[in-house]
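dumping this here before i forget
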Amino acid sequence: MEALQIARQLVESDDVIRPLAQLGSKFKQGRKQGTKGPLRIAVENLVEKDPKISAANAWQTLKQSAPAQMEFTGSRPELREVWLKNKKLAEWPYFQKLLSLVKSELK
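structure:
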């Protein structure tokens, strides 16, 4: 008899929870299209000041005056990484591509 009551409660609770769970489907993972991340914003600001800056100089400049909670690590190119709040944002090859992309967009 208890099993029947438990099953009935589960069905009733499902009727209450299901509409609430469908509300969550409005939220999608990932960045909205057209928004920019903190690394891209920092690179764009740097390129606006000096459009001909090299990747190595851009790295050193951002490393010396890193945006809030952003850390540039590594001295050799193959070890260079960008971290934000203990999460890796980018490595050196991506940083180079991002800098090149930003330069071409700002021309």
